[in-house]
Amino acid sequence: MGEPCASGAKEVRNDRRKEPTQRVVLEKLVGKSHYCFLDGFSCYMQIHIALEDQHKTTFTCPFSTFAYTHIPFGLCNAPSTFQYCMTSIFSNLLQDCMEVFMDDFTVYVDSFEACLSNLSKVLKRCVDTNLVLNFEKFHFMVTEGIVLGHLVSNRGIEVDKSKIYIITSLPNPTSVREVRSFLGHASFYRRFIKNFSKLSLPLSKLLQKDVEFNFDQLCIEAFQELKN
Question: What range(s) does the Reverse transcriptase domain occupy (predicted)?
Fold first, then answer.
């Protein structure tokens, strides 16, 4: 559609603020009796760009030049800026009853009544700050749910079975690219795979520079072991 101007790329400095790790988010949510899962609507586009900074997002089209007034997808600091904004909005609720990771908001508590009360606080905060949510992705008062690709409940953290099915149905890789893709998917659930590094070693060696691609018996066994 368009291309960012070269000057804009030079003017935007990389934001060094760190986002919360998935592990930290997940471990805060486990062991609760009730959850509410909320989702932000067009998350980045809800944040205005200061007028004096809008020129840094300039892009060109065949007949004109434009600049964004709200944060677009693809801007280098969009994720960290959005996370910072959400953390600021819900700052006094984050330690007690909710967790925020980008546009995924989770209300968690140990009783149905308390969950209703905390949900009301979160929704009121959204109204007060003009934060728009995506109602189609809401899940209210449930006992488990998918967060960051994992199933969380009072039982603990479990794998998302729908993603596992995709992994287990994969055929043997026929290229380095397919091996890298498989290891990326498998590594996402490495916390559930004992001796993951050892099991994946034959496959990892195929990713090394100047190594001939040979999906031999050791690789086949490693591939099947990781899938199972």
Answer: 25-150
Reported as a single tens digit per residue, the pLDDT across 16-26 is: 666 678 888 89
Work out how many domains the chain is built from and give that number: 2
Residues 107 and 12 in one domain: yes
Q: Which domain holds residue 198?
A: 161-227
Query: What residues have CB less than 8 Å from 30, skipping those under 6 apart?
Result: 152, 153, 154, 156, 157
Burial (CB count <10 Å: 0-12, 13-18, 19+), residue 1: exposed
Answer yes or no: are the C-beta atoms of 118 and 150 closer than 8 Å: no
pLDDT tens figures, 40-91 = 998 889 999 999 999 988 989 888 999 999 998 888 888 888 999 999 999 9
For 192-217, the DSSP string reads GSTTHHHHHHHHHHTTSTT------H
Nearest residue to 131 (alpha-carbon basis) of 164, 93, 88, 94: 88
